[in-house]
Amino acid sequence: MHPTNAKQNDSSKNNFYKNHVYLIFFCFWILLLHLGGIYLFTRGFLLTRFVLDNHSECSKPPLWDNDNNNNVYNIQYDYPWQNTVATRFRQKDQKNQSYIFNSDGCWYPKIFKKAVIIIIDALRFDFAIPHLNKPIQNPESHYYLNKLPIFNQLLTTQPSNSLLFQYVADPPTTTLQRLKALTTGTLPTFIDAGSNFAGYAIDEDNLIDQFKNLGMKIAFMGDDTWVSLFPNQFDQNMTHPFPSFNVWDLHTVDDGILNLLGPTLKIGNDNKVSDSYDSSNSSQWDILIAHFLGVDHCGHRYGPDHPAMAEKLGQMDDMIQDVIRDIDDNTVIFIMGDHGMDSKGDHGGDSDEELESTLFMYSKKWLTHDTTNILSRIYQKLDATESHGSKSFTKKFGTWRSIPQIDLVPTLALLLGIPIPFNNLGSVIPEVFLSYSEDDDLNINKQLMNLLDVTRLNVKQVYQYIIEYSLQQPSTELSKDAIHVLRNMFDHAESKYNLLKNSSDLLLIDDLEDLIVLYLSFLKNTLFICRRLWAQFDLPLIISGISILILSCLCIGLHITRNKKNSITFDNQITVIYALVGGSFGAVFSLGFIKFIGPLTIGFSFSTFDFTIFGASFGSMIAFIIHYIISNSFPILPKKFPFISFDTFMSIFFLIIHSCLFASNSFTVFEDRITVFLLQTFGLFTFFEAFKIKNKELQLKLQFFTFMYLLATRIAAYSTICREEQMPYCTSTFYISPTSTVSSPLILIILTTMTVFIPFIICRLLKLSESYNGVAPLWIEFGLRGGLILSAAYWIMDNLDSNSTSSIIVNSDETKFNTMDIIFNQSWRWFKNFIVRLAFGLSTIVGTVAWSTSPLCLELKMIDIEPNKTLNDRSSQLAENSTKSSGKAIEILGYKNAFGASYFVFLTIIYLLLFITQKPMGGIMLSIALCQLMCLLEIIDAKRDAYELNIEKKLLSKEDEIYVSNASSSSNSYTNNFQHKSTKFLDVVILSLLSSLYFFSTGHQATLSSIQWSVGFIGIEELNYFISPSLVTLNTLSSQILFSLAVPLLTFWNITPKSDYPLFQELTRSILMYIFYNGIVTTSSVFWAAFFKRHLMVWKIFAPRFMLGGINLLTTDLVICGLSIGFGCWKIMKEITKYFEIIYK
């Protein structure tokens, strides 16, 4: 080779590598933008908290030596209450002594033996309070006012037996999260990281568990959410759950409870059965829980201001009167709402109407001794501190006491003599702890001293939780500064308490009140700090995340348009450099801003890391936009508006439909059906459009593959997993029945058929372009087919194993396994796991190594040729050193589809890996997805060929016109020669919609409950913390991985290796258009989730869909950036440039 040519070749190769590397860097920059935007939005929207597994014990109250750094319990402490389990435990010197819970109580003397807890769902505060002094011009305009007169009647006639509070919940105001708060005393969030990750049941310490552990019997009736949260805690003979999802049904649940409530109350009445009371009697209860849903459902259906609401509240008023009549003197009643409702009757957000509910307490014996209004002075002093962000009274409807919802937990626990749950953050309600005995005199000092000790006990418990949380989570959201502040407050209050107790002087009322205020202030400040961390939407973070996502879509769109307009100046390298410089400047600026100005302006939850991400992201995008503006000139108005084809119009229409459906919870729920509709619309339009093609062979090809595409869409639509909100308009077909996870024999037969059908189809497809050469026959016939057969065999054996296990369990009482049975079962399971591991090995090792070694599907063949015969109609190419004069030539088979065939073989390796992780129906659907992808590629190729034929006819008919001369110019060369091969936006839209379709068809929905956790044990017997999550991830995201990996095929399919083809430019366009579409869809789901953060279904529908969108987008970026461009495209383009000695620009 001539030295000059060799030098040029080296330079060209360097440019090739540089272009490819910077394409990877550009996609990686997009990945970082998406990651930063989703991270910031998630930080502000998804509320997280780590769940501690600690549980409070009856004999061990949270009292320890404050001077001991190990925080051990101080058994020398002078415990204030004598007749408790904790006191007896400390007085005994015996080891391993156990104490039985009795009438004395655990940490505090038991005041009540029984409790009736009535939840009236969505009982807003203004529903319960009297509006006697408010003039009502039109009584029918407020149907919810003064419909619960029983509360005001009892407050007026029995003030020492009745208490009414404004009951303030924490967002999210959904029933499930509120019930967690009412039983644990914590601030439940959408994600409670910890031991209960995989289920709905509450595993952390809670009131129900404490009741159960101490032998108290719990009767339950109402909302079945309780049974999901506490599946084995209620007495089986007194558990009556009712379905809660049908919000149109106002009466079924309430009427069912009312039929049970009266008889149950009479059975447990001590006044009637006190002489024959037997704790072993299954009909007697200690705790009765009734959860009514009629008010909530009425709000959802009609809104609060409707005659049906007046009727429903009247029914609740009658029920409350009956309950009060039937209880005995040793029972306390709690009547409450779990949340409120807005003006439309919805809830889920954080508006005042949604947060403000009601708590009413009643007992036939004394409940409060505040005859001298001593608490008013304490509350005034507490509110004067202004350090906890909440007031003790509300002035909205007069003057009423206002308490956080979680204050119920420590109050109820101590009144019934059980330990306060370990994770509780609530404060005791002072009104009921001024004394613990009805016989005590009303000495103010004695009342305050009891309240002080109770409050201190509560503080010790909360402080223990905070310290334990920070110890178990060193990187906790609870900053060192926050812990330091709380520790100082605690130590200050403790030192004051010790001085007061050791003082020989007479205790002054003011001193006692001030000390109580110190302890209450600690509780309020702790709750305030934790609430800021765990249970509030952070609007600045939400807006920041959405802004980054929107701007990232804008940057991608600008890069695509620049790519299309000017291929000569298109350069990923310059773009990456501008983004890197801008991002670095933004990060440095944000760090400097935080250091010098930040403390005055930045909120508590906007950390340095958050602000650095925001600054770097915005800096890089602003730099990119500046570069775009500098390198492009824009006329104020275009001289001629571009013609928009129907394909372009359809793609924009599909994008708008897919993005806007998240504005409706109903459309979001039925996204799977909308996706099918859009895909069928494209198929029908393409089928009828084929009639316009004059070439019969091309017309039949397009119609055939379009018909197969439509058939595949209908088959995919058949496989469904129904989500709860789709009922009764959906029937699950993924398993043999909606209540089973076993596949039917027919599905297993079809799965086995796919092991033969799929390799055959791939073989026929590659033979169309004579590309069934090289590594393709070896891999398709043996590697792929063998992997599919092994996977199908595994699922058949797994199905048989499940059936045999069932029969064994049924007959376990009659037969015992002998040694041969045990050996056979172990061998069976070992062989089952062995064959699936072998399948994984074929995919991850054999297939990857074989393809990496020889990825091209090309073959050289010596052929005879006639001197005057051309090969223009063949999908092959003559080698450059062939000589026609000799009558012999070397033909390169597979030349026409050199890129596409090689990349498709690479795709089948990943397909096999994903196929193995799917359940039988999922494997079938993934195979259908691969077939539909083949159909789509041939449809796109046929449309390109039709376009090329049309262009050739125009050139022939206008060869004497200026049209031909202009076609030779460099600026229009690309347009005329390669426009028909350029990827259309509609192509990537359909590819993305197919990704969505097969996500649903493989047995998934945008719900956590649809995750197929059992696939985490494919090939293994026990949980593996790397393999199991990997398998579940591959199973869940299989369609996203498959179709994201297929994006380069839109550029590669049936493209011949020519040096003048702008391959990098077209590859970049295809990839960016696909990411652009997915970015728009994800940004839309993020925006609407934030917009509907107060919606009833935000945590059930909108938040899971945003999470799915974010995961899909990041998966797309990772697959394209790492697996597709970084490995597949790199290997193929490198080998082809080496094989043909051509360099792509």
TrEMBL record:
Any one GO cellular component localisation term in the record: endoplasmic reticulum membrane
Natural source organism: Gigaspora rosea
Signal peptide (UniProt feature, chain positions): none
Protein name (Swiss-Prot/TrEMBL): Uncharacterized protein
Keywords: Endoplasmic reticulum, Glycoprotein, GPI-anchor biosynthesis, Membrane, Transferase, Transmembrane, Transmembrane helix
Pathway stated in the Swiss-Prot or TrEMBL entry: Glycolipid biosynthesis; glycosylphosphatidylinositol-anchor biosynthesis
Pfam families for this protein: Phosphodiest
Keyword rRNA processing in annotation: no
